[in-house]
# Entry
Amino acid sequence: MSDVNFRKIDIDIYDEDVLVETELYDADPRDPAQVLNDTKQKATAVRSALSKGDTVGALTLVLEDPPYGPGVDEAKNLNLQTLVSILNSTKSAEVSSVLKSLSPDAQDTLMKYLYKGMAMPGWGDVSGSVLLGWHEKLTEIAGTGCIVRVMTDRRTV
Amino acid sequence: MAAPEVYSLAQGPITAHAFNQDRSQVAVSLNSKDVQIFSKAVNDWKATETLSEHDKLITSIDWAPNSNRIVTASQDRNAYVWSQISDSQTGRLEWKPTLVLLNINRAATFVRWSPFENKFAVASGARAIAICSFDEESNWWVSKLLKKPIRSTVLSIDWHPNNVLLAAGSADMKARVFSAYIKDVDKKPAPTFWGEKLPFGTVCGEFASSAGGWVHTVSFSPSGDVLAFAGHDSTISIVYSGSGPAVRTVRMSTLPLVTLVWASEDSIIAAGHDCQPYVFSGSEGGWKLIGSLDDTSAPKSALTPSRFSPGGPGRLNSAAFNTFKNADSRGISNAGAGGGSSQGESELFTVHQNTITSVRPYEGQSETTTKVSTTGVDGKLIIWNVGSVATLTAKLGSTHLR
# Structure
């Protein structure tokens, strides 16, 4: 038991045929600068939709083409922030009806952000109780399949 | 709709099952290194024979209906072909194994005879599929490996009716169609929608699962022109080779499917972690979930009906889920609560009480399957009437299925 750090040895470097992450999903065709730009524009569009009281429109916007993959951390955080602002400003009585009008794709993406938010408690405006409220309603509507897809999808947001 | 026939073969899991041609015998792997053959008695199955040769868990079994040979794949990296030979002294028919030269260095995970029964394919964890054919000269089974571009363990395979094309689903989240053409065994295949010239190893199609789950199961439709696969992302995808190819994906609100069969050219029976066989129906225009073969509106045993209402997507309202929910929200643990009803509280409303790991056609032609058999982790063998899809739709029209 002299060296307990054997678990930290990167055995993959000895494997010539190692499976790397980029082989598991198609990369975002946009380059990182453009992704960030798109995300910023979306944030502005979301704010104007929210000021008109259009929660469904704002959510649909923010959940469309979310930034994923390596090298776009800034855009990812910005999009999470935009999303959290929508979630926080929605009355809990409206949550179910808002969720029902989202597309299945948007529902899956929203679930990804809920889990991401729950993994970063206290970050920005993230509030655990708001996220849990949305999570409960979303699971009632989209089922356990939606949660399973968050776990399997390597395109993490 | 007639009730399904339920047989409890074991206490533990059934890893794989395969029936013989007249369905009088079934070979199963009871999560062990031996194959157990059960023979049909009046209303039950009796264990009659044990085939022992493998060193480790048997992962898959297939029984060739016409040539009456069994092929088994195991985690010991071997496959055996078993044939019935009469013993020279007693004259009794006995199952004797022939070793197959697989040349793989990881577990064999799945095995299927080709439709003409002159080849079989063995999937493995060695990122390869061994296509095996019989070598007359040396009197054993030899294999040829399909390797590229598989990037991970192959979890399931299925033969095209033309005996040449092979579909494979693997843990690198892709379903692929390969040519498994062996020069001395196969006649030149007629062109299909999947491809025209088909030398060994040609990749005729590669399809990713939509939200990235590893592909648990693949299957060609009876005509071979359509491919269905289901992955761990709780989706099932149907690929039409003719036009493009076009992929139709059904997103499920329930837990993932792990096994599927085509009941006809326009319907699929699929099952998995949700413990019940679902029926999907559709055409090139689109597919949808139309119901379940299982009636999940009441507990299966005669115990007091549960106080929990069924329904809701997925298993969220199952008794097991509610047990945990109560423990969490009210601090009620199952052990002390309700006395005698504790058994009912952990019972699922489905006939299978755990994941279904294998569904196979049982009765009918390939274009019109009338019965399917399922086995699962709960040790049950169940034979379901597929029935007419129309009555199912009417019956389940108002349920929770989206």
User: Anything to note?
Assistant: The radius of gyration of chain B is 22 Å.
